[in-house]
């Protein structure tokens, strides 16, 4: 159980902070997306009267499933910022052809 708690602490401290930073940065750089996320959250809180309830009652799967715009923004943020940490290995020689006509030979 101690190991699980340490892993949970590590994952929240090493992933959530950067994810929130990048999400906020991208939202600030793209005002239409920020407005869409804000409207979605305002509608969610208004419809469910979530502002007066404890956080443990607010975050359930039903609430998370009702935020597709926020989900998309977060997923795109993670896709754009996590890519440098994902490594690939070429197992056999191949040619990578781009739509513009360029071709790269990978070894």
Automatic annotation (TrEMBL):
Lipid metabolism among keywords: yes
Protein name, per record: Prostacyclin synthase
Signal peptide coordinates: 1-35
Phylogenetic lineage: Eukaryota, Metazoa, Chordata, Craniata, Vertebrata
Classification via Gene3D superfamilies: Cytochrome P450
Native source species: Micrurus surinamensis
EC number: 5.3.99.4
Top-level class of the enzyme under EC nomenclature: isomerase
Keywords: Iron, Lipid biosynthesis, Lipid metabolism, Metal-binding, Signal
């Amino acid at each position: 159980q101690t190991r699980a708690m340490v892993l949970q602490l590590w994952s929240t401290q090493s992933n959530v902070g950067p994810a929130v930073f990048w999400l906020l940065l991208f939202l600030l750089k793209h005002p239409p997306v920020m407005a869409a996320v804000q409207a979605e959250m305002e509608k969610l809180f208004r419809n469910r009267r979530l502002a007066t309830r404890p956080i443990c009652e607010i975050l359930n799967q039903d609430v998370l499933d009702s935020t597709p715009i926020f989900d998309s923004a977060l997923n795109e943020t993670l896709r754009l910022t996590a890519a440098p940490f994902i490594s690939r290995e070429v197992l056999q020689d191949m040619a990578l052809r781009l739509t513009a006509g360029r071709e790269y030979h990978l070894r």
